[in-house]
Amino acid sequence: MTASAYCYTDCLNQRGMRGLPRTLPTIVGHAAVGIVEHAGPAITRVREGNRVLVPGTPECEVCFWCRKGRPDQCEHLLAPARPVAHRADGTPVITGIGTYAELITIRGTWAFPLDSALPDTTLTLLGCGITTGVGAAFNVGQVQILFGSIDVLPNGHVLVPENLNNRVAEYNPEGRVVWEATFEAPVAATRLPTGHTLVTSMNPQRGAVELDRAGKECWQYRADTRVTRAFRR
Ligand SMILES: [Zn+2]
Ligand SMILES: [Zn+2]
């Protein structure tokens, strides 16, 4: 890696959000410019020696969301952080992409060849900050935070986990909020036949939580790893 921007996502990762266990050590850094040292035989987009941009989020090109033309929602975004190394005492060092390392191993679809005279320190901003900001400005009013799974209810209402708002909201077909509950970084929400709501959080300490009709927690399943979806029969 030759340059890597600093992003709010790194702050979240340092605090153990976004699926990284709260225990350090971890390698932060999530958008960068670098040179390809080696490309596997199946890699067609980049070759050894290419100067490439590594964006903050993956685009696998083959999952449901990537094929649907929404690579911003690629399912690998929610993949658990990987152990990439061990300290001398055996402690695993984990990371999502970890562009603050000198070398990283990523899938071929996560690297984009660059053809520009701009310096690496400027181009690295294309990996997240610029694309996020420009996207929000150009698509104003159409911004969707779909980071997780929604539930379409039999009456046509939609239950949306709004992770950035720390709430789960039920919208009627006119787009009005008819029910809401406060919940930390929800990532999936399902309505149970009882009228209760089952939610999971981006915080791995939360596991799955059941909220009653008043939005109060009435049951919890604890897990040491992030639960991305939960169902109850
Ligand atoms: Zn970012
Ligand atoms: Zn994908």
Give a concise summary.
The protein is α+β, with helices and mostly antiparallel strands.
Overview of this structure, please?
The chain is an alpha+beta fold and 233 residues long. It folds into two domains: 3-138, Quinone Oxidoreductase, Chain A, domain 1, CATH 3.90.180.10; 151-221, Thrombin, subunit H (Beta Barrel), CATH 2.40.10. Helix content is 11%, strand content 25%. The chain has a four-stranded antiparallel β-sheet. Strands 7-8-9-10 form a four-stranded antiparallel β-sheet, with no helix packed on it. Strand 13 (208-211) and strand 14 (217-221) form a beta hairpin. It is globular. The model has no long low-confidence stretch (mean pLDDT 85). It binds zinc ion (ZN) (2 copies). The site of one zinc ion has 6 residues, from loops.
* The CATH top-level class label of the largest domain: Alpha Beta
Contiguous helical run count: 4
Order of helices and strands, N to C? EHEEHEEEHHEEEEEEEE
Mean pLDDT comes to: 85
Structural class: alpha+beta
Q: Which segments are poorly predicted (pLDDT under 50) over 5 or more consecutive residues?
A: none
Strand order of the largest sheet: 1-2-3-6
Number of domain units: 2
Backbone shape: globular
Provide the list of bound ligands, each named once. Answer: zinc ion
Rg from alpha-carbon coordinates = 20 Å
Instruction: State which percent range the strand residues make up.
Output: 25-35%
Give the distance, in angstroms, between the N- and C-terminal Cα atoms. Answer: 48 Å
Which topology of the largest domain does CATH recognise?
A: Quinone Oxidoreductase, Chain A, domain 1
The helical percent reads: 10-25%
The beta-strand count equals 14
Question: Please, what is the CATH homologous superfamily of the largest domain?
Answer: Medium-chain alcohol dehydrogenases, catalytic domain
Named at the architecture level, the CATH assignment of the largest domain is Alpha-Beta Complex
Largest β-sheet summary: 4 strands, antiparallel
